[in-house]
Amino acid sequence: MRPNLRLTPGAFNPAVRQTTIDSTICVSGWTREVRPPESYTEQLKLKQIREYRESGPPRTYEEDHFIPLELGGAPRDPHNLWPEPRGQARRSDPLESRLKREVCDGAITLARGRAEIRAFKDTHG
Questions:
Q1: Which residues of the chain form beta strands (DSSP E)?
Q2: pLDDT in tens, 36-63
Q3: How far apart are CA 117 and CA 39, in angstroms?
Q4: In DSSP terms, which residues pair with 83 in a beta bridge?
Q5: 8 A C-beta contact, residue 65 and residue 10
Q6: Helix, strand, coil in percent for the chain, rounding step 5
Q7: Which residues of 88-115 are buried (b: 16+ CB within 10 A; e: fewer)?
Q8: Which residues, other chains included, contact 2 with Cβ-Cβ below 8 Å and sequence gap of 6+?
Q9: pTM for this model (two decimals)
Q10: 66/2 Cα distance (integer angstroms)
Q11: Alpha-carbon span 84 to 58, nearest angstrom
């Protein structure tokens, strides 16, 4: 399953820009501070499972950020969250971590990291 770009086009956290990465995404523990509570994401997941016309049990989905928090995705914007099948999350999570490391090391720009994760999720979910 891939994100439905009409429902989940992605959204950015306005606090995260190339010039602010050293005080946001590159700070250890920063994503914990901005991650929405499960009480919010669980209710949104149930709603979005219906919107996506999925029928599997909710526990088989993870409410995932299309643009990950690690790359400055908007934490609570429903346009940046979608019900990702758990098996797919296991494939995208390592890439998200690698791209964040590359951004923070200066090997790639934030814009390039975001473009790469968007392309991956558009293709692979």
A1: 61-65, 81-85
A2: 999 999 999 999 999 999 988 999 999 9
A3: 26
A4: 63
A5: no
A6: 55, 10, 35
A7: beeebeebbeebbeebbeeebebeebbe
A8: 121, 122, 123, 124, 125
A9: 0.92
A10: 10
A11: 10
